Amino acid sequence: MAGFDKRVSTYAEALEGLEDGMTVLAGGFGLCGIPENLIAEIKRKGTRGLTVVSNNCGVDGFGLGVLLEDRQIRKMIASYVGENALFEQQLLNGELEVELTPQGTLAEKMRAGGAGIPAFYTATGHGTPVAEGKEVREFGGRRYILEHAITGDFAIVKGWKADRYGNVVYRHTAQNFNPLAATAGKITVVEVEEIVEPGELDPSQIHTPGIYVDRIICGTFEKRIEKRTVRS
């Protein structure tokens, strides 16, 4: 079974083959469950002209936000971008192309891409700027717009535990967009907190089966809190 061992030992090896102009799908929600070390490796590599698909673009100085510092992102497809001043600046200056997508639609775009479904109809966004230029059909007396699926050259994902074969478990809300992104990348790279021996993961608890995963790396994580709120 050695040929099924998907572990890599360095982040450079984990992102081998990532080139300028590629599309990268990134898991996470805010700063929860983000593949922070894989993002840092993209910054180190200096890969440019990227189209990045993720729920949001991190914050100034952390998460996907670090890729804005050297203008490595050409286009951002996201559902929420309100926590990043540099993002706002580049958008207003015309340096960053942005495609805002309703959150559920974005999730379904990745899920559909991973399932081999090229497009789907949804009522979300009909009658708003989201629907401009998109096909509209009526079903059951209600109007729906056609949305196309999303796939990527790379998917970068943060898991909790995995085995060497790439079976992944996520922890609580850190699951978020990660399993959706994992299915939709031509090359899917997952960084985890722990790699366990085969058989240690309960098969019924596995969120992403290893068939979707190409590379696994074990890392350490800062797990920064986006907004810390305490009682006075």
Distance between the ends: 56 Å
Please state the second-level CATH architecture: 3-Layer(aba) Sandwich
Structural class of the helices, strands and pairings? alpha/beta
Mean pLDDT: 95
The CATH topology annotation reads as Glutaconate Coenzyme A-transferase
- How would you characterize the largest beta sheet? 7 strands, parallel
Enzyme class: transferase
GO molecular function: 3-oxoadipate CoA-transferase activity
EC number: 2.8.3.6
Family: Belongs to the 3-oxoacid CoA-transferase subunit A family.
Describe the model.
With 232 residues, the chain is of the alpha/beta class. The protein has a single domain (2-218), classed as Glutaconate Coenzyme A-transferase, CATH 3.40.1080.10. It contains six helices and 13 strands. It has helices at residues 11-14, 36-45, 66-69, 85-92, 103-115, 178-183; strands at 23-26, 50-53, 73-78, 97-100, 119-122, 136-139, 142-148, 152-158, 161-163, 168-169, 185-192, 194-196, 215-218. The strands form three sheets. It has a seven-stranded parallel sheet. The protein starts with 10 loop residues before the first helix and ends in a 14-residue tail after the last strand. 38% of the residues are buried. The mean pLDDT is 95. It is an enzyme of class 2 (transferase). It catalyses: 3-oxoadipate + succinyl-CoA = 3-oxoadipyl-CoA + succinate. It comes from Pseudomonas indica.
